[in-house]
## 1
Amino acid sequence: MIQALNPAVLPEATGNYTHGTVVTGARKTVFVSGQVPWGSSDAPLPPDFESQCRLTWRNVLAVLEEAGMGVRNLAKVTIYLSDRQYREDNSRIRAEILGDHTPALTVIITDIYSEDWLLEIEAIAVSG
């Protein structure tokens, strides 16, 4: 249902992503709004990138779980980082979360809505 697209004319896709994905036979599509490092309303915001990244992925996975989906249903992920210095940690943690699953991926370095948030993740998932 989700097939990686890696044309031979492009450089090899490395780091848990593919150049594109084709989805066939999908019956359900879930658009995950940008998730940020929020825990419960009384939990303090983690100060470090790794904790914020793991919490943000937890939130993405919670939305997928609510829809009866998981990591393997991800077709497209967009990650917004507040600073280029977080690229390597982001890649490492993403690899842990996704395992061998390689959705289409974009990472953007940009300002984030709250100056306290170090990243935001949005996603599209599909199931048959």
## 2
Amino acid sequence: MNIEKANIQDAARIHRMINDFASQGKMLPRSLSEIYENIRDFYVIRQNNMVIACGALHVIWEDLAEVKSLAVTQDHQKRGWGEKLVGKCLEEAALLGIPRVFCLTYTPDFFSKCGFKKVPKEQLPQKIWGECFKCPKFPDCDETALTYSFNEVI
């Protein structure tokens, strides 16, 4: 199975996957319109033409991007697909020349295994909070912030 850029036909499946996990409190929900608007940010993994995993790299500013909406179907977890998607997002960030990538997550240990380091949310620039106003948990965010810095790794 290969990691590919998502196409417009993948949007509904990505939406269902993300919101299935959101209904379990494992990630934040996304509207279908958000998925369509940001489809170019997404990578997918398909098995038999069915999307089984997705993740996105969203550029925030010249020096910052976010890995978001990472989901792997229950039947395909614990096989390294999530790590591969995060790696693909980091690869794209490096190609774009973005020195730092962050995530907000309920699974910080997973992202730590991918090379991310926990940071206080207050260390992240205010521009990342643009989506937070739409969040049902705003202003009481209970996600953990982590960053990946290419400068520290090299």
## 3
Amino acid sequence: MKRTPRYGRFFTSTSGPRHIVIRGRVESVERTRLIIRSEGELVAVHFRQAPGLYRGDIVEIMVQKSDERVDYLTHKLLVRPAEDPVGVRHSMYHEMRSKFENLHARARMWSRVRSFFQERGFLEIQTPSLVLSPGMEPSLGFFTTTYVDHQQRPHVYYLPTSPEFSLKKALCAGYERIYDIRPVFRNFGELGPLHHPEFTMLEWYRAYADYTAIMHDTEELVSLLARELVGKEPVPFRGIRISWEPPYPRKSVQEAWSQFVGIDLLACLQDPTYMHAQCQEVLERTLPADEDQTTLFHRVMLEIVEPQLGLDKPMILYDYPADLAALSVIKQGEPLLCERFELYIAGVEIANAFTELNDPREMALRIRRDRGLQMSAGIPPSPVDGQLLRALRQGMPPAGGIALGMDRLLMALLGISTIEEVIPFPLSDLTSHEQRLGRLGEDRNEGC
């Protein structure tokens, strides 16, 4: 978003001209004026004779300020950028400046989220970045790292795919309203317009609540952030202008399949052969005969259902198949379903929530099942977090919890198409820099 040069907080109205010193970086040099960025503001400085400054220079300028304009008097050059030996055409400064509005909105969002939870009696728990288990979701790749102790013995730890396990230990320890905003890590190809290997997740848990209470929290938080960051004129996200005013529509997965696919999902869940035939028909192609129900479900969701969710307002999709329960409870009286919901905006999943499983025996069974799925898929199985299982045996109160992708939500609020535009230092910056350094090294070797 291009900002118009303005005087901002640097200058106050005055009845006559006065001399002022400003310090900042030259954003551009035009025919009769300099555009200086100082303390986040753009200032237009007019001159009669070119002062010999260039884009990127960091300067101290004496100006004369009147009611009409700001005129150049003298300057001191503080820093002139050196030539980049790698041949980078755009400096880190200008790469970061392009995200100026986004990163300021990001900071306001983080601050408002914290005040939202503090006002409601939640405690922020800072969860660790080195954990015993990264998480048990079979489809998620993870990162490992090694700690070497003072006796030179290696200990393998993991970067968390979610703070879930740590926060549930806190629930077991008696903390009833808790949240964390933290970086989480996903490996194996997590890089694209909506994916990044490191991103920011907000998780919160409420003891003695279920997923319907978390639905209310989510609607309240998202609509509040929209009012403060977007205002009354929302910008399109993925070509769709979203209305952020609550209430947000809620639809069961069964209803969504009936409406968008024309299939009775419950009937499919009871008969795998019937589900395979129905999915093959709606997807209009032959599917592998041995494809399981979970894979079929994901195919239809990804290709048909998800693109139609949250197209006018954020939508809550709830009651998923029991095979996708992860760590949620099975719905009472509906053994084929679980108490899980996801929040969608313009077809993009933003959050995933449960009525949390707190039965240690069932938890152990699901962990064993997920490890088996990882091994059958050729993925190294995640280690079991024994601390969590011991904590659950001591008793975790009934609770609702949610994981919300802060970067994706910020993208939706600001109408941004790629996640890297809301992340200060994306991985692609590092990889492109490595490639440039590699080319520089090759050039130098050739000259030896």
